[in-house]
Amino acid sequence: xxxxxxxxxxxxxxxxxxxxxxxxxxxxxxxxxxxxxxxxxxxxxxxxxxxxxxxxxxxxxxxxxxxxxxxxxxxxxxxxxxxxxxxxxxxxxxxxxxxxxxxxxxxxxxxxxxxxxxxxxxxxxxxxxxxxxxxxxxxxxxxxxxxxxxxxxxxxxxxxxxxxxxxxxxxxxxxxxxxxxxxxxxxxxxxxxxxxxxxxxxxxxxxxxxxxxxxxxxxxxxxxxxxxxxxxxxxxxxxxxxxxxxxxxxxxxxxxxxxxxxxxxxxxxxxxxxxxxxxxxxxxxxxxxxxxxxxxxxxxxxxxxxxxxxxxxxxxxxxxxxxxxxxxxxxxxxxxxxxxxxxxxxxxxxxxxxxxxxxxxxxxxxxxxxxxxxxx
Amino acid sequence: xxxxxxxxxxxxxxxxxxxxxxxxxxxxxxxxxxxxxxxxxxxxxxxxxxxxxxxxxxxxxxxxxxxxxxxxxxxxxxxxxxxxxxxxxxxxxxxxxxxxxxxxxxxxxxxxxxxxxxxxxxxxxxxxxxxxxxxxxxxxxxxxxxxxxxxxxxxxxxxxxxxxxxxxxxxxxxxxxxxxxxxxxxxxxxxxxxxxxxxxxxxxxxxxxxxxxxxxxxxxxxxxxxxxxxxxxxxxxxxxxxxxxxxxxxxxxxxxxxxxxxxxxxxxxxxxxxxxxxxxxxxxxxxxxxxxxxxxxxxxxxxxxxxxxxxxxxxxxxxxxxxxxxxxxxxxxxxxxxxxxxxxxxxxxxxxxxxxxxxxxxxxxxxxxxxxxxxx
Lengths: 376, 376
Known about the structure:
Strand content of chain A: 15-25%
Strand order of the largest sheet of chain A: 4-15-14-13-12
Number of helices of chain A: 15
Largest interface: A-B, 43 and 43 residues
Shape of chain A: globular
Oligomer: homodimer
Largest sheet of chain A: 5 strands, parallel
């Protein structure tokens, strides 16, 4: 994997770059749609590629491991072959899901035992077997197995957890470096900075993570409930330490404003379930802020969903029709709203990139943040 | 509306025709995908048009009346404008839904009172207001308000109900003929033959319906649980009486074999929720019979969903991936399976039409029925 910085903003830390993977080039900053179980909910692969112009999607190791299971994915020749998405894929390590989705779990030095949210069966994730699992899934970028601490999290717990996450990282790297890709193309491992909202822990973690000298680095444990200001403060602390010439991935963030502010702080990669999950409940992100399409005010508004957009579905369907579909729990409502939100997120980061390359990012970002004016 | 018979099969009663409506021409025999609430579940309008090549879709008066409601549809300028489907639409009269979906209902000479399945609110459907409602929805073909009797149904009930349905038809025609279309284009009213599985009642009903001299006629109250042989027998009895030169619509039918057998008996138009509803549970219709894609046997079958198809999604996605999506209740699973089934149904009637025009229908139909060999 090769990362090239093409331009850095003079009034902020924003950067535009290019990340070359075995399945194609990603232009950064980038947003990665979440395809939990190997499918971005409600969106066909050709829509992702042609309508949304997604450059990379996410898969969840936890979900894919449980269903369809590693035997099936390996027999298919990896996730790309299984779901037909031939562009880059990133898989998380399951670290987040075993804490957020499973009810019975036990965290030990060895790893985490948990029960499947599907059938209650018992499983163990360790740094080593999570690397093996991600070798089998075959994503271009794979993530270290970490503990993602909740918010709020007391200092002592955060510190102890962080130390374990660092020891786990060593085990992840050892396993990863001593195994080969299964399908003939290169995979890259990103370690994850943790440390909750404690500046000193974040600094220590960033230094540790940087010392591993991997090809890219991630920041985890944010967007878990903390105020946006704390999130930005942590990103700033960490980015001052993480290597400048390597891609930085802020996991699970966030709203359009969160994304713009973090781009300004030097983040290159984002993922979040918000545009897809909230779409299914009728929350639309637009360049003029957030719309709840279920509101009565859209009942007889027959204007296009988003006249500012160049997406066919945004121009073809009306707000009133989409409102009706969401109210009626019609599948098509989820499909249309998801396409809209993902298209908007991809437009936002593409626009940010253009402004960085033009040298006008900072001014544009401040204007957009005002215009978005979101209140969630 | 103008119907032209283009060809009739010499070894059966099958016919190929063309039905010209204000929103375009329908080539018969045709299958009409069901878009209950103004949307064919899981399918974009452009997919219906370009991928499935649907020529006409159905809407349900009962559902549309309750949600989004007539005010919204009228403000939009009718259902075509509301949902963006600019080809022909047919609406049923709500007669079936008020019996099958509502729990509290009372059938009187005046009409049917029922409670909404959405919010329990009380409503009255009469032959007159159902015509007015369908004027507002603005479908090209609208249906008379009838009572659809269940199966089994005792003779006395079926007879009494039929007489009322006939009196209601008179009221429907009076109201329809004394009102104008709201949106400037012609609408056509089809009456419905009832009579359960009683030959004499079906004959009597067909004669009554024919005497109204409308531009097309429908057969209702079949595919409600009776054996296929009874369904075919009733179609045969009725079609011997219904005018030869007008389109015949068999409501709510059915499996691929049901459709082929009824085409052979002289039916021109079909609708059924089976290809869409069953798709969502993983039942796929193929030219070699029915597949339950959830079966273990497809778990690692990475061959295309349907190699015989020319639909992109049938060739792009594998059986194993679709199985995974349906098991995981992913929206994309419903989308892919629905596209597949509708494409297959449309292919089937298009193929039947080609064979009728070629003069080889009867032989082909018998071969196909064997090949389909369906057991539901």
